[in-house]
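Q: what does this look like with iron/sulfur cluster bound?
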Amino acid sequence: MFKVALIRQNNYLDCYNTLKRGFDALGGLEKFIKYGERILIKPNLLMSVKSNCPAVTHPEIIKALLLIIKDFGAIPLIGDSPGRGTVEKVLNNMNLLDFLKTENIRIVDCTTPITKKINFNNREIKHTFFKGVNNADKIWTIAKLKTHGQMFYTGAIKNLFGLVPGALKPELHFKYPDNWKFADMIVDIFQLAQPAFAIIDAIIAMEGNGPGSGEPKNLNCLIMSENALAADMCAIKMINYKTEDIPIIDLAIKRKILGPQNYNEITILGEPLENFIDLNFKKVRQESKITTFFGAPIIGKILKPLILSKPIINFDKCIKCNHCNEICHPKAIKLNNQTNKMKIDYLKCIRCYCCQEICPVGAIKIYKPPLLKSIDELIKKL
Ligand code: SF4
Ligand code: SF4
């Protein structure tokens, strides 16, 4: 059985004790840390935002966890490769840099690339991570529960994509334009990283236009588990998704060796999962059943321009910062000099939604064409 602790907490005032309650419920901190061990905390530091922004793991969770590890006698480290800017800049914006200096906690090298590989089912899984992972005995994924434009949900497993150095991430989006192939690549990263512990900050989650520009939503729960897949399965149930709705979760389950195969293999500790389910949680968009119904390759080649969801720009909000252009690998979005507005070339666009993720003012949303909605309705009735 895979144990998941669900700890009720409705604010970030006493994260040290909230986390302690979670570790106690799971059998005590000593089950997960050894004296002197180097634990790399990988929070979700998407981009430079204010410290109370729901797009990132709350700084009070990060601080409390680092102190818990330190107080135990282990060595906490921290690292992430944000979508934009350096990890130091993001940590500074979140008022964490001084804390790290005072507590003498090291930020690992998050830019130099190294290669990690393993063999699985006669296949070599190989990815580039930042060098700092080699400084750690264990990696802990410390995620935020959020909606996600491309993957619908982001939590403990998707958070590990931040182990890939910044500039390489758009390249991977370009290499895996199909959602399911991209999700499979994320599961490869999960399998390579082998996180030893997972925490999902669902005290204040993010709903709507995630992962960068959604709205805060109280779910009042800290999710903790030794198994990242089990933690994610609980998180998606809270926001009313099924495992097969979320490609990363569905594919991780299908590998059979990464965690539970179903909810019967999860033991909930703390408070029952049912107490946290929010049926009104606003999703980033409903997943289209059309890809799974017809098959992604056919969709990609024939129907994509007509019926796939696409990013659209709200010109009233756009401040022309050009961040979307910089992150767009196929260069599908750029300033139109005649209109002086950002313009998307939908024939080039691979629907990776990196632009929607990175836009600092939430000017990019995902639009689902009416034809796609109608086809989805039809498929539901079949
Ligand atoms: S990132 Fe957002 S605000 Fe900046 S140019 Fe693109 S659409 Fe406009
Ligand atoms: S326009 Fe946006 S969604 Fe399209 S390829 Fe560029 S970054 Fe990805």
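Residues 311, 327-328, 330, 332-333, 344, 349-355 surround iron/sulfur cluster (ligand 2) (CB under 6 Å). The domain at 2-276 is CATH 3.40.50.11440 (Rossmann fold).
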